Amino acid sequence: MMDYSKTLRNNNKIYSRTSSQKQNQQYNSDFSLRFVFSGNERYDIGKRHLSIYPDSFLILNKGTQYSTDTDSDIPVQSFSINFDQQFLEDFKEYWAFSDNRLLNKGNYKLKHDQEFDETIYPFSGDIMYNVYHLKQHLDSGMNDELLINEYLHHCLINYFSIYNEEILKKAEKLHFLNTSTKIEILRRLNLAKEYLYSNYNQNISLDDLAEHSCLSVNHLLRTFKQAFNLTPHQFLIQLRLKRAQLLLKSTSYPINEVVNLIGFECPSSFIRLFKTHYNITPLKYRQTA
User: Fold this and answer.
1) What pLDDT, in 10s, does the model give residues 136-191?
2) Considering the entire predicted model, what is its pTM?
3) Quick check: 155 and 178 in contact, CB under 8 A?
4) What residue spans carry the Polar residues bias annotation (predicted)?
5) Residue 66 CA to chain centroid, in angstroms?
6) DSSP state of 116
């Protein structure tokens, strides 16, 4: 694990840090993508508490005030990319005029001064491939700024595509006529999603989830299913199984301890669900991962 900070000539910045305990308050001066490769890191933004794990990432807009906190038995390896404002504006021009996949879907327009939803996004697919390869190059001492900026450009392409999938398309699924209503309801649903991501190992009630998202229970159940194609309970089960995969792959915790860490009460039901979902038992998954 390597720690470094790199500022490119165009003022894009990349940070890699490893820590087991950290707590500090910061001001985000640039639009940034935040990842962890091991352990988890909590971000407090106002009254919101968001925890990111190796299967998720967070974006922060320019000017956001936040604090971070890590307290883990596993060293937390964090990685962040801060984009210079001019680099970001140039990319928005490129996206608007040479790639209309985002702009031509729905009634949404991407504005130059638009702020993106500071929420938890899935870290998988193309963005994971690009970030992992970028980090491998940097860890090996690569200093080719042209290549680094190509990776950063592709990371923005990946994020804008994810934004389209996770925000714009999900908002379109909601059964409301007014666009602003769809965006507001999705913002509240994302509060519920964040709560599940950050408290997945706790006993979460529908009342807690509804209160956190400022929706009634019935409204939450109906609109959550519309946006995410899963009920909150189904979403939580899938999330717990994904976190079980991470623990089985990266730690030596016994199966029973993994069960406790992800919030399941019964090892037999966990094993049954894991096998049903992944077509392999937890033990065999660990042996082949």
Assistant:
1) 999 999 999 999 999 999 999 999 999 999 999 999 999 999 989 999 999 999 99
2) 0.89
3) no
4) 7-25
5) 16
6) P
Sequence-separated (6 or more) residues with CB below 8 Å from residue 72 = 20, 39, 40
Is CATH 1.10.10.10 the classification given to domain 235-288? Answer: no
pLDDT at 22 over 70: no
Q: For residue 150, report the phi and psi dihedrals to the nearest 5 degrees.
A: -65, -40
Q: What ranges do the domains of the chain cover?
A: 4-172, 174-229, 235-288
Q: Where are the beta strands (DSSP E) in the chain?
A: 4-7, 13-27, 31-38, 41-45, 48-52, 56-60, 65-83, 120-122
Average pLDDT, the chain: 90
* Burial profile 241-273: b = 16 or more Cβ within 10 angstroms, e = fewer: bbbbbbbbeeeeeebeebbeebbbeebeebbeb
208 burial type by CB count under 10 A (0-12 exposed, 13-18 middle, 19+ buried): middle
Q: Are 36 and 53 in contact (CB under 8 A)?
A: yes
User: Cβ(22)–Cβ(76) under 8 Å?
Assistant: yes
